[in-house]
Structures are given as C-alpha cells and as structure tokens.
Amino acid sequence: MNRESLATGRVVLIGVFMTALVTSQLTASKLLLFELPFSIPVTGSELVMPGAALAYALTFFASDCYSELYGRNAARTMVNVGFAMTLLMLALVWTTIKAPIAPFSGVGQSEFSRVLWSSANIVAGSLLAYVVSQNWDVYVFHAIRRRTGERFLWLRNIASTATSQAIDTVIFVSVAFYLAPKYLGIGMQYELAMVASLIVGQYVLKLGIALADTPFVYGTVAYFRR
C-alpha cells in the first residue's frame, strides 16, 4: 500500500467524520418532512425526521471506510475522540451564547441561541445514541471482517451500518422526544404515534443511504489503498 496515500486518507476521513458529527449536533432540533410518491407503514407518504439525520448518516460512511483501512482500535479511537470533540463543541457554543453581546450585533442574542443551542433533551438523546451506535458499528464491522477477511466489504458495510443506525434512531428519538420530556421534564414531549413516525422516517432514510453509499465505500477504500 502507498503510505502517503494512507496517511492522506486518515486525515480526510477523520475530517469528514468530525465535520458530519458536529453538523448533526447543530442541526438536530429542526424537523424535516419529505414527501414520498408511495405510502409505507406508520409514516404513510411523509417521512418526518430530525435534521441531524442527513449529516449523521455520513459519519457511518466515514467510520466504515476508516475501519476497513486502519483497523478496529483506530476506529474506536476516532469514535471516542469524536465524542470528546462534541462535548468541546457544546462547551464552546454555550460560552459564546453566555458572552455579552454587542448592542450593534447583526444577530440578536435570542436568535443566536435558538439556532445554535439545542435543548437539553436533544443533547442527551444525541450523545447517548452516538456512544452506543458508533461503538456497535465498529464492533459489528470487525466481527464480520474476522470471518470473511478482506472479502465482502459490502456485507460488513451494510450490516454494521443498518444495525447501528437502527440502534441510534431508536435511542435518539425515544430519549429526545419522549423519555427525557416525560420523566425529566426537559423539552417537548411528542405523542407515541409521532415518536414512531420519527423513528421509521429517520431509519428509512438512513437505510437508503447505507445501501446507496456502498459503491462509494469501495471507491474510497480502493483510492486510499492505491
């Protein structure tokens, strides 16, 4: 393998992973709605999901490429560092919000806070979902790799991403939109029907991305192994 290419790949994939992770934290509070040309159970013809779904799905693409190229321990290190960087990002955003605002600022204090600072239920749900799902993704990816060697990259990519995305979706939506509001009194509590709709809608999108990104995983791994 080309050492220089692998070194470049390490920087690029870590950069993609961290960027997508931070973006997902900043966009989690907005709910998205996509119209479908057909109907599916629970959600009907509308997919409703947190805004983080789009950016967060990219983290699994990056982590699978990284796992394949650099191994299980390196991937787990990236996941754990990503968790620490998320906490750092939240701390920096919070301190910026609390800092005194200039009277001639083009953005008001309330607008700035409302856009950049997710409520505590969103933060709790996203952090818990991240720790569990990302470590599960690395575990499943390498459990399959131990049995298949370098063959069947498509299988470990789809299997690890599909199962970890399911875990992530259930934990995040349940905690952020139902459990935390109901039992901790933080955030807005949604009806169970809406919670189920959010889970299904978000997972359908994530599963579609997991299937669609497989050729890109092959291409990325091959490029940095050239």
Structure description:
This protein has about 230 residues and is mainly alpha-helical. It has a single domain, classed as Orthogonal Bundle (Arp2/3 complex 21 kDa subunit ARPC3). It is built from 8 helices and 2 strands. Strands 1-2 form a two-stranded antiparallel ribbon. Helix 2 packs parallel to helix 5 and helix 6 packs across helix 8. It is globular, with a radius of gyration of 19 Å. About 35% of the residues are buried. The model has no long low-confidence stretch (mean pLDDT about 90).
Task: Tell me the layout of helices and strands.
Elements: H1 3-26, E1 31-40, E2 44-50, H2 52-70, H3 72-98, H4 109-116, H5 120-148, H6 153-184, H7 192-212, H8 214-224
Antiparallel strand pairs: 1-2
Helix pairs in contact: 1-2, 1-3, 2-3, 2-5, 2-6, 2-7, 2-8, 3-5, 5-6, 6-7, 6-8
In short:
With 226 residues, the protein is mainly alpha-helical. It has eight helices and two strands. The chain has a single domain, classed as Arp2/3 complex 21 kDa subunit ARPC3 (Orthogonal Bundle).
Mean pLDDT: 90
**Alpha plus pi helix count:** 8
Helix content: over 70%
Please tell me what the overall shape is.
globular
Secondary structural class = mainly alpha
Computed over alpha carbons, the radius of gyration is: 19 Å
